[in-house]
Design goal:
Structural class: alpha+beta
Number of helices: 11
Radius of gyration: 24 Å
Largest sheet: 4 strands, antiparallel
Strand content: 5-15%
Distance between the termini: 20 Å
Number of strands: 6
Amino acid sequence: MSNDRPAGEDLAAFAKRAGQLAGWAARTGFEFTRKLPGVEIAEQIVKQGERQLLSELRRRLDEVDDPYHAALTAASAMNRPDTNGSRPVEATITLVHTRAQLEPLRAAMAELLNHSIGFGRERAREYLYAIILRQLTPDEARILSALSDGSPFPVVDVAERTSLGAAGRFVLRNASTVGKAAGVSLPDQVPGYLTRLIGLGLVELDEEVPALETQYEILLTDETVREAEKSVKRAKFVKRTVHISRLGAQFWQACDPSAG
């Protein structure tokens, strides 16, 4: 791969290859033909290819315009002794209006401000999505995939009921059935996953949906919810729903591997 290609183009190319791989598996009914002769070997090849693509994609995401990483590299260069070991090598960081030696945090902010000058709308959007993608765990990606069609899922908060029947101290927030629907590896971490996705602006909470009453009843039997209920004298359940946000839908459309 040529080193002259912009990082954004390389990133898009790897994402496209990953999407094509997933699309091929879906089109050929890969899941249903595992028992055919030779398919087990083919499956291993596909999985190896997926791992290589994901590993390379993550490496590139880690390198995409990380201002703090650039600042730390520059700071390290400032403090690195020359070949004689007598004095540090001089290094400078480009600022919006000046050049100076800065602390990493200040230099990182300067780097972001520099980016803001040269970024167009599409490049800024790509940067935003890349930064978001770097922060997601595999389980959170599964949850976002489950929500990507716009369907709402039940959410329950557990609070301590006050003497007036209101919700007092909350002992659990954002428990939901979406984790099991998504097949996450750590079901007990779903409340934390949803809290993070809400913080990233990818999903939103809304009012209770009566049509989901059966799912609410199932959610109330969840082990995490039951443990929270036991931790208070009198529990009050606050029912809501979670669905993908506008930003989440745009982000998923840009990153959906099956659309490659």
